[in-house]
Amino acid sequence: MLIKDIICELESFAPTAYAEDFDNVGLLTGSAEAKVTGILVTLDTLETVVDEAIAQNCNLIVSFHPIIFSGLKKLTGSNYVERTVLKAIKHDIAIYAIHTALDNSMKGVNDMICEQLGLINREILIPQAGSIKKLLTFVPKKDAAEVREALFSAGAGSIGNYDHCSFNTIGSGSFRGNEESNPVIGRKGEIHYEEEVQIGVTFSRHLERNVLKALFDCHPYEEIAYEITTLDNFNQKIGIGMVGELEEEVSEMAFLEQVKKTFGCGCIRHSQLRGKPIKKVAVLGGSGSFAIGNAAGAGADIFLTADLKYHDFYKAEQKLVLADIGHYESEQYTKNLLASFLKKKFANFAVVLSNTDTNPIKYF
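The structure assignment produced for this chain is given below.
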């Protein structure tokens, strides 16, 4: 088993194409061609985590947060980032970070928070724009069914709960090949008219390479006419944050007590309570102050997130309760999600859940 095989499965689960532009996801150290001796799954990669990987004979660390976030201009061991990277390189340990690729997954970080809280009717809080593409191509009528099926098999044509979705228009196409051409239909140097079907399908951005390969492999023409455009439509299956509902509404204090116990919070900082029951809950693991307006707009009674600043709490404006449950606390179950996924995919392979507490914040 090679590291690239593990990466392939991880990116089928949480494609890096949907990571935020500011992020640094993917393989950070090591070679994708190296053989895997074992996988250590962690929330953060620190020196102590690398030590744990060495002790467990794991040469691949799958980490939620990237240890290298901004560019490194030197590696002298002068800070915890440089020391961690140097130790990983010295011991031939690869580090793969998944971060906002998993944040934006329907079954990722925020779904895990909802799972712990028992929320139902879950939806993405901020659906991602620009993640849906559209392909138009032109195919001889007799070959249209074969080309459509190839595109569907590559993942095109799926919309929500439906698949095999396409729009087809019959028309007349014309072309003339030059002396260098080798036309499948018609003759070089002569204008040819062919009854064609214009096939239109949408697909998720990360599938573009597979969809084009399917098109090129099965299309009969020597030169294939096609167009790809990026749509502004929001992708309801990709995006950050999540909103769901409790089976039964509860009081504000009862819900906060449940959250504190479930996530082991040292404390919960929250805005002024409204004296109204909690039914609809918005969540966003990690730093989520940017989504306060989205949570309010979704009609949430409370928004669970982390890293809220003093003035952020004013933004509640009695529309909802804001609750800062801690950065680590909100994302802690992510490593369990990743470990469970990898164990299912590689049942006969060593996948180890890190025991290192990487939470830098302590409570008195």
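Interim note for the steering committee: The mean pLDDT is 96. The first helix runs from residue 3 to 13.
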